Amino acid sequence: MELDFVRSRFIKHFDGSTGRLFASPGRINLIGEHTDYNGGFVFPGAIDKGMLAELKPNGTDKVRAYSIDLKDYVEFGLGPDDIPRATWAKYIYGVCREMIERGVEVQGFNTAFAGDVPLGAGMSSSAALESTYAYALNELFGGSRIDPFELAKVGQATEHKYVGVKCGIMDQFASIFGKKDHLIRLDCKTLEHKYYHFRPQGYRLVLLDTTVKHELASSAYNKRRESCETVAACIRERHPEVEFLRDASMDMLLEVKDQVSAEDYMRAQYVIEEVQRVLDVCEALERDDYETVGRKMYETHDGMSRLYEVSCEELDFLNAIAQDCGVTGSRVMGGGFGGCTINLVKNELYDLFIEHAKQRYCEKYGREPKVYNVIISDGARCID
């Protein structure tokens, strides 16, 4: 993202002066999908694509915001009834309200922002936007007194209350806590986290974007969450210690198989197995065993497609191409219903894989998948 470009737009659309620049990244998730809202483990990393915003207090009680990418301007107040109509502005408004509720005396400000996180590709552009503004408002009006854990919760609460998606904490956590050349194993139940060095020798991480824009439908996402909560509640009647599905075992799930629907059982089976896969991958990375990492990625894709049913034809097709080309690991990444596969590819296979994926995908769907090479990067920060 070009700093000078964002600054030039800010100067043009406001009073000709400059403010302060803030950035937050999107993220990849190596493994651990749909486990965050089940209290499980995830394994994300921040990337070198994100959101960049310039902010400057304007001495009023209004926020004046300009989306550079959408070429759209919105002005809104900071009161509880001032929610703007534009969807993108609701994210900024929601962050403002959540910071105010935490005691930060947010005042009016001018802002312009842009991003290079591909929309709909599962790299969490919304979390990058929320984290940028949570971090910025904490710096500008909060005296940096809100701790990073709480800033991640600000973004999550914004999704819940103002956008209508009951997301977990992973996306915002990765955007705030990202660290160059490291992935983060996050325990979504306790928010305990551990960094794992990830700069694999001889391998590359590449995302292939189906360009399918099945938006992450709130109803489908929330329905799966309800399935998980239903099964966890059923298991809890026999095992009071089970707060989330993360706390359950497959033996516990089998005990209640006749008490839950077949669909709810499948959803729960996927989550319980996925929680264990994250731990298996962490152990594999500690011994530089990338073949095991890749095998677990394929297992995750199978579970997301067959049990959790959040894949789609195009994602399954790209996953099959990866297997045919000998790619070490491949799976759907993100919430599903479109977006990207994430692929762990040996350097010597990279060119062949990309060539085959583009050719075969184009032959079948009439367009090429987009290719994003990702570099693990730092989290939310001020750019002075």
TrEMBL record:
Residues 283-348 form the GHMP kinase C-terminal domain. InterPro entries: Galactokinase (IPR000705), Galactokinase_CS (IPR019741), GalKase_N (IPR019539), GHMP_kinase_C_dom (IPR013750), GHMP_kinase_C_sf (IPR036554), GHMP_kinase_N_dom (IPR006204), GHMP_knse_ATP-bd_CS (IPR006203), Mevalonate/galactokinase (IPR006206). Coiled coil: none annotated. The keyword Transferase applies. One of its GO terms (biological process) is galactose metabolic process. The keyword Magnesium applies. This is Galactokinase. It comes from Porphyromonas loveana.
